[in-house]
TrEMBL record:
Keywords: Apoptosis, Cell membrane, Cell projection, Cytoplasm, Fatty acid metabolism, Hydrolase, Lipid metabolism, Membrane, Transit peptide. It catalyses: (9Z)-octadecenoyl-CoA + H2O = (9Z)-octadecenoate + CoA + H(+); octanoyl-CoA + H2O = octanoate + CoA + H(+); dodecanoyl-CoA + H2O = dodecanoate + CoA + H(+); decanoyl-CoA + H2O = decanoate + CoA + H(+). Transmembrane segments: none annotated. GO terms for biological process: fatty acid metabolic process. It is an enzyme of class 3 (hydrolase). This is Acyl-coenzyme A thioesterase THEM4. One of its GO terms (cellular component) is cytoplasm. Its EC number is 3.1.2.2.
Length: 180
């Protein structure tokens, strides 16, 4: 974490504390409602540059016997820390993300992930988050079961220009075929 972190303003477009965040993209695997395979995470704004996300740990997310797959948990952190960046009012993408898995997370549990912006340097947005099991098997809202740190980069609309024709998984341009 750099020493010269700036503390950004909360964007006026960010929901009031306790308010539900909109999906950032309906086909997103993490939060979209137009993504049948997705995790349908939901998010509530915190008091500052932070959010609390919720994930129901479905059977299909199994990695080891009875527990969440580490990649799914990593995805949940990516989504939560990205959604915290919504408080800046600009689009971001993940540059780097690391996770510490502290406790097993059983299938059937409900996770809450509290994620925040720690500060910014130019386009770099430093974030962190913790996960807790708030209901279901082994629930203990005081116990942190995993933590994450991630670096996001703010991007403009041009970042998505080259890939925008692939949103439905069917390349239409420049290849004009779905076999590519
Ligand atoms: C995703 C949809 C967003 C929709 C937006 C709606 C608005 C809502 C807002 C918010 C909600 C968002 C919710 C999202 C949740 C999910 C997010 C994901 O999963 S995103 C997919 C995975 N990530 C990628 O696909 C990136 C692929 N990588 C790239 O495109 C580039 O590498 C990119 C943009 C990350 C950086 O490339 P450069 O050319 O723009 O920037 P350079 O000049 O290389 O770096 C700028 C600074 O960042 C540092 N930097 C870059 N990458 C770094 C890294 N990996 N580690 C450390 N530093 C890094 C560099 O050292 C440089 O630092 P110095 O300013 O010079 O100090």
């Amino acid at each position: 974490m750099p020493d010269d972190l700036a503390a950004p303003e909360r964007a006026p477009s960010f929901p009031a504390p306790g308010g539900q965040l909109p999906q950032h993209w309906s086909k997103c695997f993490g939060c979209g409602d137009d993504q049948p395979a997705g995790m349908t995470m939901t998010f509530v704004a915190g008091e500052g540059l932070d959010v609390t996300g919720r994930l129901e740990v479905a059977k299909k997310y199994q990695g080891g016997p009875g527990v969440i797959h580490g990649g799914i948990l990593t995805t949940a952190f990516d989504e939560a820390q990205g959604m915290a960046c919504m408080s800046l009012g600009t689009a971001v993408v993940t540059g780097h993300l690391e996770v510490d898995f502290a406790r097993p997370i059983p299938l059937g549990s409900v996770l809450e992930i509290h994620a925040r912006i720690d500060g910014t340097v130019r386009r770099k947005v430093y974030t962190s988050a913790e996960a807790r099991i708030v209901s279901g098997p082994t629930a203990d809202p005081d116990a942190v079961v995993a933590t994450s740190r991630a670096l996001f980069l703010t991007v403009g609309a041009e970042h998505f220009e080259k890939v925008k024709n692939f949103v439905d998984g069917t390349p239409s341009s420049p290849f004009e075929t779905s076999s590519v």
